[in-house]
Each structure stands twice: as structure tokens, then as C-alpha cells.
Design brief:
Helix content: 25-40%
Coiled coil: 44-71
Domain Transposase IS66 central: 183-282
Protein name: Transposase
Shape: elongated
Radius of gyration: 43 Å
Structural class: alpha+beta
Pfam families: DDE_Tnp_IS66, DUF6444
Number of helices: 7
InterPro entries: DUF6444, Transposase-related, Transposase_IS66_central
Strand order of the largest sheet: 5-4-3-6
Order of helices and strands: HHEEHHHHEEEEH
Amino acid sequence: MDESESKIIRTYDEDIDAVIVMVKDMSLHIDLLNGTIICLNNKIVDLEAFNARQEIQIAELEARLNKNSDNSSKPPSSDGYKKAVYNTRQKSGKLSGGQPGHEGETLEKVQNPDEIIEYKVADTCDYGCSLTDIGAVKRTRQVFDISEPQIKVTEYVTYEKVCPICGKVYKREFPAEVTQPAQYGQNMCALMNYLTYYQLLPLERAAETDRDVTGQKVSEGTLVNAATALYEGLEGPVEEIKQSIIDSEIAHLDETGIRSEGSTKWLHVACTDRAAYYAVHEKSPAVKCQGPIGNIRNMANTLVFRTDESWRNLKKF
């Protein structure tokens, strides 16, 4: 018999009033416990509802973060500049390289090589027999290589004479592209621009590559000057491209955000089936009534562009 049972028996032995008091105390205690249970149950219900709302909100936020131009209607400019990671390649079980039946590009021999190096056999054999009149079996192999680059320096010389009778001066001018006492030619400048603006090498590495390939030490400033000269030389052709798009029957417009000079800017493109014109601008056409090929209102052709809200405003211009 435990202590609680002993207490009940002692109370019962005393008198009925003691039993009544004990039962009332127990009833009050039970009521208090029931109230506590109800309160806790209500809190549990509230917390479960709150947790459900939080899960929905978290799912919505995660979905919003995971949205990009590939899986939603968001434009590419909203994707940011973090490199996208794609790992959808499935293992095929095949070895790397060309597969059976694959048509590769085999290096073929040419009929007229630039240089022929012959390795002839001796005129006599090891035992003194003459091999002069013995027919030889000829085999050939060809090696394709590049010649060692070498700078070619061309000096232009002009002359000037003065007539001793009339005093008239006769002189020849240098070619229009020869403007400095010493300068790089078109091929060298083409190599510089190829490395910096096609292969996208930093100036330091482009200068290093120029030196390694040609043996000529080129400064980073020279690379910039070559790019400036190219830019100025292309002004005419670029304007022709721009005008051809303006005069076309149909032009396509688009834009995307880029990082330039430490800030976000807009790369605009206007194109036809034969020409494309690119331009970087501080704002989009919807904000500043300006497209990549000038004021949209000056274009008499049909424009094709996106249907999102910002581009629909173009119809008002």
C-alpha cells in the first residue's frame, strides 16, 4: 500500500467531513489541470497553423529565388551575373573521343609542299656493293607547322625637289596610313586587337603574347591605341549597319542588363536578317525614349520586341 492510499484510508477513518474536503481539493486540482490542458491545446493549434503558414512562405521565397529566365517569364537581365551551373549530362558508357562511324577531319597530304627534305641511302652497301643503279622505294610523310614569326620592317622614303628656275617644289607624300616616324603596321595591329577583343586577354597578357609570338615588345598603351584606331576606322561601316536597320521593313529589338564600369547598364540590340547593331546605354528604352539605333519615333519600319510591361510602353513613343 503506497502513501496516497494510506492517506485516503486515514481520512476515511476520521469522519465524513474530512473525506468531503479531500474530494473538493482533488476536484479543484483536476479543474486547474483541465484548464491548463485546454490552454496548451489551443497554443498547439495556433503553433501548427503558424508553422503551416511559415512553410508556405518559405516555399514561395525559395521558389522566387530559384526563378530565372529559363523557368519563368523573368527577363535574362534579372538572372544576375553568377555563372549558371548545368549538370544534365548523363553517362553514356562510351569512351571519350570519336565514336565508331564518326566522320572526323583527317589531316591530308598536299601535292606541293613548301619544303622537301630527303633522306637518301648510301651509294654502297656495307660489303662494298654499289647501290647507285638500284631502284629505291620512296615513302613520304608531311609535317604541317608554322614558320617562326618574324617582324618585317618596311621603310618608306619620300623625296622632294625644288626647280632652280621657277622655284616650284615637287615632293611625294607618305601613304595615308603611315603617319609616324616609326609605327606598327596593319597586320601587327590586327593581331593586337584579335588578342584583346576577340580572345579577350587582359592587356598585360596580350602584351606578353605579342612579345612571345613576334619578339617585339609591345606596351599596354600601344594595345589601347590599336583598339582606338580600329574603333575610329569602323565608325563608317557601323553607321551603314545602323542605317540599314532603320531603313529595313522589319527590325527586331531587345535588351539585357550587363555590368560595365562598375555599374549596371543595358546592352541593346537591333537587328534584321542580315545585320545586327549593339549599343550600351545607361537606361532601357522604356525609361528613356531611346533605342539602340536612335530615337524609336524616327523608325518607319515594323518593330518586333518583347511583350512585357516595359516594352509595351514603346507603342506610346
